[in-house]
Amino acid sequence: MKPRWAALIMMTPIALLAQKLPSGEAALGTKAYEDYEKPAVCQSCHLDIYMQWTQSMMSQSYTHHWDEIEYFDLAVPHGEKVPEYKAVSDDCNGCHAPLAYFAGDVPPPRPEEGSRANEGVSCEVCHTITGFEGDDPVNFNYISEPGRTKTGPKPGLESPHHITRESDFMKQAAYCGTCHNEMNPYGIWVKSTQLEWQAGPYAEEGVPCQTCHMPKAKGRSAKMAEEGMIAQHLFHGAHDPGKVASVVEIRMHPDAREVEIDEPVTLQVQLFNAKTGHKFPSGSVEDRILWLHVTAEDEAGNTFHLPVDPKGFEGEEYTIASDDLAYTDMAVPLGLKTFDGVGRDGVPVGDRIFRMPYFDEEGVMTIQQWNTRTLGVDYRIGPRETKIEHFTFDIPDDLVPGIVTFTAEMYYSRLVKPVADYLNVPVEEAEPMLVNRATTWVEIYD
Ligand code: HEC
Ligand code: HEC
Ligand code: HEC
Ligand code: HEC
Ligand code: HEC
């Protein structure tokens, strides 16, 4: 049973109503925590969805330890030292702790204090979104209308606890884009997952984010509901080894099977991005590292590392692992007078890296997306794109003739290891995840 006032609201043109509601930075301090219900309330009827959500990064967007470190050790102090960055550090909460942002409670209490900031991207945050303001979805410009009405994908559902309203917007990629696209104060797109998707094959085929991150399965969305196809709240991404596994399919072949010991072996490796709807990596590209490691092993078990053959494109030096140092701009928020930086890559020298470097004003690589002035070469792997890499193996003197097996392995890590080590980020954030592997062989004779 719907109260009469609800019917009235439903007849009012939504666009008109929405225009008066603040979004983005204008929403700071315009609401109260109490305007939003707690996830525990939804749990009583939507148990499965609730349990899925607690395992996803959405529920940890404020409490996750690496987020806490970057926010409290880098962003907040940066905002104190450089006044232009005060708003930027408050803005983190517009996506990571929306309730605190709406309540004007910034910086919010630390996660250990158990405030409602800890709810992160909660049920209520997402199910009170009615649209977005502006041309592109970016920088939390979603419009939040808390209250008895919850927006959902289906029409005409009855709930004893709330009113439901069908929203087409919730089924679109732009909805996710309001938080998954970010432009920094210098006009740099420091996150562009939805824009990457928009430019790729999945947008053209009408396959939004929800298809891959909220797949539908038969079930009940609430304990008392009828069975139907239900959007699973998995939101599995870079933190799920199974989601990352096999994103790129790898094949590799030599230019000949039988090779004389004084000739080099050349290999081609094909890398096909079969799984992501955007580039890989996407999102927090400043932190992410994806690399290809190729080795040769002779019959005696001696192994040799093959560096990638350079292609000669501009900015390529950032896509081949080196011992260079970077990330010196952390000195400002950390209050260091002298700081040489830490290792740029932390992966075997000579490996191919698929990334897009972010540069500070000195042209040094940074993981502080808010302090990024320019972006370097975009050498990530696009949706359904295939890249080919070449390797040349000059047979070393200590190789034993016979069958030599080559292995190509692709690894992904959410945070460059030297940065993780330096900031005491939990080790799992920098742990290499195996994406895929391929092998081939040649026979070497004297
Ligand atoms: C209110 C802002 C907001 C909205 C709307 C939103 N997200 Fe997110 N999402 C986040 C934040 C913040 C994180 C990062 C959590 C963390 O690691 O701190 C995140 C993380 C994720 C992740 C996990 C990525 C990883 O590294 O494991 C996936 C997948 C994801 N979102 C997909 C979606 C999809 C699909 C939609 C649309 C249906 C969506 N998001 C809508 C804010 C949002
Ligand atoms: C007392 C039980 C109950 C509680 C508490 C409850 N819901 Fe519901 N909700 C339902 C029922 C029943 C439906 C209708 C399901 C159906 O018929 O398929 C529903 C439907 C929905 C829908 C619409 C789904 C669609 O397909 O469009 C959304 C969104 C929703 N609930 C969100 C929430 C949120 C967010 C909370 C917590 C603030 C919440 N609900 C609390 C029972 C509840
Ligand atoms: C990041 C945003 C986000 C969060 C967080 C979120 N939802 Fe949803 N929810 C969605 C979207 C988007 C859909 C519709 C997906 C579609 O149909 O493509 C949806 C669908 C639903 C549905 C209808 C399912 C169906 O297919 O009939 C219910 C019920 C629901 N959500 C409840 C909840 C509850 C309860 C929570 C918290 C435990 C929650 N949601 C958290 C975005 C979110
Ligand atoms: C065709 C399926 C597909 C579509 C469509 C898709 N994704 Fe993904 N997404 C994936 C896969 C697979 C991964 C795991 C690999 C990775 O981490 O990039 C992923 C990873 C992610 C990540 C983590 C990225 C990283 O490297 O840290 C985020 C965030 C994300 N998706 C959000 C979105 C959003 C937002 C959309 C819509 C604009 C979307 N995805 C559309 C398949 C998809
Ligand atoms: C426009 C929305 C938005 C803003 C503003 C924003 N973030 Fe995020 N943040 C996200 C999303 C979405 C992800 C997940 C992307 C992915 O998984 O690759 C994310 C990921 C992260 C991660 C990586 C989490 C992980 O588990 O690897 C950290 C750390 C982080 N944000 C910190 C911050 C800080 C600090 C600020 C403020 C300076 C900030 N964010 C501002 C949306 C935002």
Could you walk me through the main structural features you see in this protein, from its secondary elements to its overall organization?
The chain is an alpha+beta fold and 446 residues long. The protein has two domains: 228 residues, no CATH class; 205 residues, Sandwich (Immunoglobulin-like), CATH 2.60.40.3880. It is built from 15 helices and 21 strands. Helix 5 runs antiparallel to helix 6. The longest helix is centred in the N-terminal third of the chain and has 17 residues. The protein is globular, with a radius of gyration of 25 Å. It binds heme C (HEC) (5 copies). One heme C (HEC) binds next to helix 6, helix 8, helix 9 and helix 12. The site of one heme C (HEC) has 23 residues, from helix 6, helix 8, helix 9 and helix 12.
Q: Regions with pLDDT < 50 over 5+ consecutive residues? A: 1-18
Distance between the termini: 86 Å
- The shape, in one word, is globular
Q: Whole-number average pLDDT? A: 95
Number of domains: 2
Give the helix level as a range of percent. 10-25%
Biggest sheet layout = 6 strands, mixed
* Overall SS class: alpha+beta
Strand content: 15-25%
Q: Kindly state the number of beta strands.
A: 21
Note the total helix count: 15
Cα-atom radius of gyration:
25 Å
User: Which ligands occur here?
Assistant: heme C
